[in-house]
Amino acid sequence: MRALVISGGGSKGAFAGGVAQYLIEHEKREYDMYLGTSTGSLLVPHLALNDVGKLYDMFTNVSQHNIFSVNPFVQHKKDGREYVSINYINSIWQFIKRKRTFGESKSLRRHIKRNFSEQEYNAIIKSGKDVVVTVSNLSKNRVEYKSIKEFSYEEFCNWIWISCNYIPFMSLAKVDGFEYADGAFGCVVPIREAVKRGATEIDAIILESENMEYNKVLGKNPFSLMLNLFGHLLDQVEKSDIAIGKLAAKHRGVKLNLYYTPTKLTENSLIFSKKLMTAWWLDGFLYAEDKHGKDSSTVAVKY
To answer: Using CA atoms, how far apart are residues 202 and 292, in angstroms rounded to an integer?
Structure first.
């Protein structure tokens, strides 16, 4: 049983799309299970449908407007680098309304349903493939994995959305009296879960460079510094997930193939730029091609 695992990583998910495109179209990999966290949860349903063209169009064209109904960020560029600072007006308005987050991501939930139809949901169910997304149950202080086989279309779309909710910048969701948020707060790379579900070979796409040895540029205001702090904490969770996943795979005799980003793609994965994400998709494709020893004679499909 073969599984594809995609980590969290915001806009860097475009790189994962390029890697997955190569594996599916050129290595002819067929997967029985697809597991994703955060941005990975947005990718895996379309990969299960083998609809890479639609996924490419959807992912490389996503913008802040498609994600935030209340955007807590102001983007600006300096010396060729993208930065974010706090949107004081929106954040103050959130406090006035007694909200617990700086922003709201209801637009993302609508975007998910526009791009993943009930017919596509039914096609996955009929195929027998399993699609699993990771969420963090903050009320019970635990990680949960939600399979498409266990929920209705509406419910599963909601779990995909919840898996992406990077609080306190996005919405805090409540389901059956429990409060949920981004799955990456508990598990960035769900390799061990794939092993537990019976995978015998796993391709895991990790949206971070392998050694992670670089100097971060820390924020110059409390808001951007908070983003840096969260990024640091999630890097530690990711390292732990990979180590535990490797041990679980070794213990069960599972073949584990890891695909890292060859370089640091961005310092802020909540910035969505069509130009950057299009380039990252191609980078992912070429990286996977090079990893498999090809001569770079093939070209990523331009959808």
So the answer is: 15
Tokens found for residue 12: 């860097």
Q: What is the dihedral sign for C-alpha 126, 36, 224, 275? A: negative
φ, ψ at 90 (rounded to 5°): -65, -40
pLDDT above 50 for 297: no
- Residue 218 CB neighbour total at 10 angstroms: 12
- Take residue 60 and report the two structure tokens written for it: 């490389």
Provide the residue count of the chain: 303
pLDDT tens profile 112-138:
999 999 999 999 999 999 999 999 999
Residue 177 CB-density burial (10 A; 0-12 exposed, 13-18 middle, 19+ buried): exposed
Rounded distance, CA 233 to CA 230, Å? 5
Is 2 in a helix, a strand, or coil?
A: strand
Q: What percentage of the chain exceeds 70 in pLDDT?
A: 90
Residue 27: which residues within 8 A CB-CB, separation 6 or more? 288, 292
Q: Is pLDDT above 60 for 69?
A: yes
Q: Residue-wise over 248-278: b if at least 16 C-beta within 10 A, else e?
A: bbeeeebebebbbbeeebbbbbbbbbeebbb
Compute CA distances 35 → 43, 160, 277, whole Å: 9, 11, 21
User: Model pTM greater than 0.85?
Assistant: yes
